[in-house]
Amino acid sequence: xxxxxLAVGGLMLLRDSVEWEGRSLLKALxxxxxxxxxxxxxxxxxxxxxxxxxxxxxxxxxxxxxHDLFRDPLSWSKPGKAxxxxxxxxxxxxxxxxxxxxxxxxxxxxxxxxxxLPCPTLCQTLHALSRQDSCPGDTPPGEQVRVLGxxxxxxxxxxxxxxxxxxxxxxxxxxxxxxxxSAQILCRRPRQRPTHQTQWFSxxxxxxLELQAEPPLESQPRSDPHTPSVDPTxxxxxxxxxxxxxxxxxxxxxxxxxxxxxxxxxxLRPGLxxxxxxIFYEPDAYDDLDQEDPDDDLDV
Amino acid sequence: xxxxxxxxxxxxxxxxxxxxxxxxxVTSFQRRGPRASGADSGCSRLVSIAGTRRSVxxxxxxxxxxxxxxxxxxxxxxxxxxxxxxEEDKYNIYSPLLFNYFLAEGIVSGHALLVASAKEDPADIxxxxxxxxxxxxxxxxxxxxxxxxxMESDIKMKIAWRYQLFPKMEGRPVLSSGFGHDYDIxxxxxxxxxxxxxxxxxxxxxxxxxxxxxxxxSLTSGYMKLLQxxxxxxxxxxxxxxxxxxxxxxxxxxxxxxxxxxLWGDDxxxxxxxxxxxxxxxxxxxxxxxxxxxxxACIITVPTHLIQNKxxxxxxTNLSDTVVGLESFIGSEKETNPLYKDYHGLxxxxxxxxxxxxxxxxxxxxxxxxxxxxxLFTIEVRENFYV
Lengths: 300, 387
Hints:
The structure holds 2 protein chains of 2 kinds.
Chain A lengths: L1 H4 L4 E7 L6 H13 L3 E6 L4 H5 L4 H6 E5 L17 H12 L5 E5 L2 H7 L2 H12 L14 E8 L5 H10 L2 E8 L2 E8 L7 E9 L5 E4 L31 H8 L9 H8 L32
Parallel strand pairs in A: 1-5, 1-6, 2-3, 2-4, 4-5
Antiparallel strand pairs in A: 6-7, 7-8, 8-9
Chain B lengths: L1 H5 L7 H10 L28 E3 L6 E3 L4 H6 L4 E2 L3 E5 L7 H15 L2 E6 L4 H6 L2 E3 L2 H22 L26 E6 L2 H6 L2 E5 H4 L13 H17 L14 E5 L22 H14 L3 E7 L7 H10 L2 E7 L16 E7 L16 E5 L4 E5 L6
Parallel strand pairs in B: 4-10, 4-11, 5-8, 5-9, 9-10
Antiparallel strand pairs in B: 1-2, 2-3, 6-7, 11-12, 12-13, 13-14
Helix pairs in contact in B: 9-10, 10-11
Organism (chain B): Ovis aries (Sheep)
Protein name (chain B): Elongator acetyltransferase complex subunit 4
Organism (chain A): Ovis aries
């Protein structure tokens, strides 16, 4: 499933935490896009360019277009040199730069941008980035712009996290167990139910992605989630169950208003060509069917 | 007036009575003034606009929300001049459906539309509206549905067999022609219907200028532009009666999507103590003033699950007229709960307005659930087996 993530356009959030870092997954996805021949733009804010490019071989590095906000975020050096106007202008420049063809934009991190920009502004800019401004109408899925954003979820409150997740098409939350990293992938298509999936993976030193099966669970010090279930029907002073004989007796009991099926159907569907009314007589169990007139005994 | 002399006595045969009533009034009282022409027997001197009807309780002018079941629970329909607020479900799957039903009903009834969104282009929204169903095909589907139910219930009902044929839903309201249509979600609305309709779109990324100035007033600039846009449309098209209209009066249906989300520039979803916390409430107040003075009805969807401050949610609810909340079961533990297995979510009708009235017009039923079938969005009373 992680491979098919790159087929979907839009915003993809990579939520990582202190225990499970997400930059290596980001670099793995960047490498995958670069190997597919797409344009890749990276906006680096948290680590230096050398550190980001480390581990990539030269053909990938030649495809990466790096926009550096780490060295001089406030543009104190000679103005006009690189990315004036701060992070907002940098994002807008990215929006205008992707001219044609599929492209991937990696934001190194959204957390840094959230701290430096007001959240609504960032959301609006991200939305504009991941939309198709150049080609109105339906673009084929391979041609879309993908925005990968790394988000450190422990740095933000529920507000910005909720706002960004409502914008994202895909949300990958990193977690893991016993040294094995896993990604919980939540995929939101526009009019369909969101799909949830967990994928175990590992990243090799050259930043290629290796998918793995779920690790065996034996040596887990898991707290027992099931308390022994108590059957509430034991130790009762009344009986809630029916034995087989009792059930048969119950089924064969004739209920007082249970009529034969033709009478039921006739009562349910009245008025079909009935000029006169019908009388249905079904003798009860206690009815006496003796035709004699009981008044004959009287000597009157 | 040959009829006048002998009327009033009850000893006439029914045949002649009917004949007399059809030609003249049965009573000897004559109406002075211009006689209302046409077949509207109930609204003699009131102008009848297509797609609306008068409420039976207090004479309020109502429009349909597009879902006859929802109309029934809202007291007959949505009153003209009021706001219907839909609290979105968590993954925003079902609230666009209600939004689309409202707009589709507007197109089918011939009303003017105003669609505002910060996320999607209004032209795209209009392309995805559901197609209206012709009456007999829908009834056929309903009958099949009921027959399907009957086959199972024949076996089940041993004691209560007289109730076998009752439909599972509350009685479907009788639809007079022109009010409330049925739609098929699996099909798109035909293109010619959209082209013949009059619609105005407001797409925020196009309208807002690229320079982000600090706003001096407390309304976010996106909201301000939207209010100006709505006011212009109402004034120019004459929905508020300011320009004496020569053409027929019509209703303006306004639909605003995802109001309050960060895409509108509002940060109530992002922080608990935000700077522009009164922006949305001011917007709603001014919007309601615009609606009350014009022939329009509005539907708004708000992602209240994202709003961090509960006080803001309460204020937004109080400032709207009708509030319907959607709670979907996706991702929550209710999805696997056997109590809810037939449904996709719950509908909470949180508020109903009291317009020119002393009492609320609510139904007694509080436990409503919805289900999204392949072609329909149905609202049902949740059958509670534990009562």
